[in-house]
Amino acid sequence: MATPTSWAQEVITCDLCPKPTQQFCNNCQVSLCVDCVSKHVDKFKSQTHDIVHFTNRKIQPVFPECKVHSNQRCEAHCQQCHVHVCLKCILSSHSGHKIVEMQEIFNEKKQEIIKENQEIESIIIPKYRKKMDNIAGKISKSTAKFDELEKEAEKNRKLWHQEVDNIFNNLSSLIKSMRENNLTSLQSHQSKLKNLIPDMMQTVEQNKGILKTNRVSDVNNYKSKLTEYKNMPADIDVEIPSLNTHTVQGRELSISLEKYKATLTQSALSSLTDEVSHLAMTELLDKARVIATIPTGVKPLWRVACVGTDEAWVSGNDKVIRRVDIRGSLQESVTTTCKYNPSDISVTKQGELIYSDFINETVNIVRSGKTMVLFTTPRGWGPYGLCCTRSGDILVNVYSNKQNKILRYQGKILKQEIYEDEHKNLIFKEGLLSLPMAENNNGDICVSDRNADIVIVVDKTGRVRFRYDGTPARREKSFRPRQIVTDSMSQIIVIDYDNACLHILDQDGQFLRCVDNCGLDKPSDLSLDSEGRLWVGLNDSGEIKLILYIK
Asked: Is the pTM of this model over 0.85?
């Protein structure tokens, strides 16, 4: 509390306006200037007011007004009825009940807050900061180790024959995937700790504000967060794999990273396909499971594009694209320039939202809340599907007069067109439906040809590698492919709309298994988050099923 000497040194302002205070309401504990006295009294006509000169004020608790008896304040609490009571209440409707003085509860609560603040400031916050420092060290160590892994892989690449470049391409992709998963886990944990500290500091400041008040209601309504803060997020640790090589001059070269192993001998070259397929199979869960059902409020739900770990952009039958988190809470919305609705949405390597506008023949990007044209497709060719590649290129499915093409753009420059094979035959069947697509780790472009009901995979030059018609899965109904994605293990995952399931293939088209136990009613779109979890959009319900399918 300010002393008489300090009053003379500082100007104490009115609680209702910026003017210097002159009066004080002892009943309400409010500082007032002369002009605001009548305003205060008029606003709280039902209460009594003891207005005195500020120097004659009495500091005392402000008890809440009784809701039953006018001009009475509740200086006690009925433990039987769990309500605040005044003297008239005690003598009437609460006669004989166990009564506790509000002053006693008020004092106990303040002591509790003091102890909590001391523990948060002196013990818990330092623990969080220490954990953050430890994780920063792990991130630095992990980054250095992965740099060494990549350098070592490149060094050993020179010892191998040119024909095994494909092995090292897959090895490099595996290292990058491990690096991304490793650092993402550590950074995510660091971020969780970092985000909690400001919240705890804010709680401390709020508690300090409560400690300064004399309002009983403010103190009694206080809810502790101490238990929540004590439950510090479980620590994580990650292992850095070792790259092992073995050379027998002129006879054998071998290299391995965890379960991945490739060997080159004088007589034969080991099958990389078998190794990758085996690795993919060992990573698949025995049974995929739904770990969350996310309501989006968008019905029908047509498009889903993940952003990082816990968020996704979604769109439906209107002009608006919405960003929702894993709880279904709306985080942001973008009203597009489309006449009706965006044909497709995607997220660039830099995390920026892009969408295709079929009518205006443009692909647009949203930067800093503003929409701009990224590039315009060839005249007469409307953009449908989008795919942002790992290299930063953008693949666009364009349509004109029942014919579909896939175009590759580097920035605004058209670099490649894919629509004919080496015999000048059309790769994709003519029809009205769009072609969902995804780029695999080896550069293959995986396409759901919805007009032919098959999956077509072409290499980076546009040459057809294989087609998949769903037969190996032996489903009850005919194969109806929709959205398609590829994961860190180069597995191809495609929606089978009529059979309400997902087909999982290896990078060479070998069927691995189906995900068909997750309640995928009318699945419309598919996306992968940074933790390798599947986000499956359901058309009619507007929900997203979050599915864990790999270890």
From this structure: no
